[in-house]
């Protein structure tokens, strides 16, 4: 039996002794990091929010197998946050849609999530009325059964069968009432329970995972008590996607004891926060770098590469060399060499001995090695 087939299945319970200490530690870390970023001032808080939301958009989509263009995501998020430096470019509807959902969830976290708002989120994800090539019910609950399946045709593996469509309206009514009701439950725990509850109902033809994570982000932002974003739980979930899927599936096939589920999610959240500490250092370093060098004349190619190195710090982009610069900017190696030598003369870059090839590293104000790794180009 699946959990939703049991009577009173949403009467979730857990071993508080196994949860409380880990929850207290993660809440302390959460508060410390928020306090740290609030002291950095408006511009850095804005940069942190921008970068965190970009990660959320990219990685909540990656979890569903959809890989979005990072630069278009950046432009969409920046424009919708009202950041003046954001360039106007034409953004595909699927990108603008998921950006709209996550910005509404995190910037309007105190607003009630009712059916109308939830249907609006779903419509934002599927404005064409299609998921891939399949026409789906949009902005309304599904009208047919739902199975979560993996594997090739003829070798499918059923991971989960959702409640029948006839039960969805009543299940969602109960869920939304609980979600909007003020209670003594810690908001971090409430966020994680809401995520599990929603994906178990699986109320829509598609988009359930993204909407469940948006609801979780909404409650986590409420737990912060601030619109400033400084971590991306979706980014951490994507890194641990196999375990994420396993713990959900295991809990859906169990009873209402969700101790193991909560334990894993709290530890995942802690890893997301610890990762954000490093991200904050990079954001601060980037802001300090541009403040320090604001009067130095740089061309658009040079500015793009410097921002690229900062923005892709986590991706281990490899050595910065004449060849990689030319490839990234789609320019000649002669142009790349002139740009790089100019940056060295202006003390923006330093030259590092790379044997037969010259490596360049950014002169970071805080001494961070950017790019951070030694790897083959």
CATH fold description of the largest domain: Fic-like fold
Query: What is the level-2 CATH architecture name of the largest domain?
Result: Orthogonal Bundle
Shape: globular
Class by SSE composition:
mainly alpha
Number of domains: 2
Spatial arrangement of strands, main beta sheet: 1-2
CATH superfamily grouping of the largest domain: Fido-like domain
Strand content: 5-15%
N- to C-terminal separation?
51 Å
Radius of gyration: 23 Å
What is the total tally of β strands? 6
Low-confidence stretches: none
Tags for this model:
single chain; about 375 residues; mainly alpha; Fic-like fold; Arc Repressor Mutant, subunit A; 2 domains; 14 helices; 6 strands; globular
Can you describe what's shown?
It is a single chain. The chain is mainly alpha-helical. The chain folds into two domains: 3-282, Fic-like fold; 299-362, Winged helix-like DNA-binding domain superfamily/Winged helix DNA-binding domain (Arc Repressor Mutant, subunit A, Orthogonal Bundle). The chain contains 14 helices and six strands. The protein has helices at residues 16-38, 42-62, 70-80, 93-107, 115-125, 168-180, 187-201, 208-224, 233-239, 241-252, 259-292, 300-311, 322-329, 333-345, and strands at residues 130-131, 134-135, 147-150, 157-161, 349-354, 357-362. The chain has a two-stranded antiparallel ribbon with strand order 1-2. It has a two-stranded antiparallel ribbon with strand order 3-4. A hairpin with a 2-residue loop joins strand 5 (349-354) and strand 6. Helix 6 packs antiparallel against helix 7. The longest helix has 34 residues, at 259-292. It is globular and about 70 Å long. The mean pLDDT is 92.
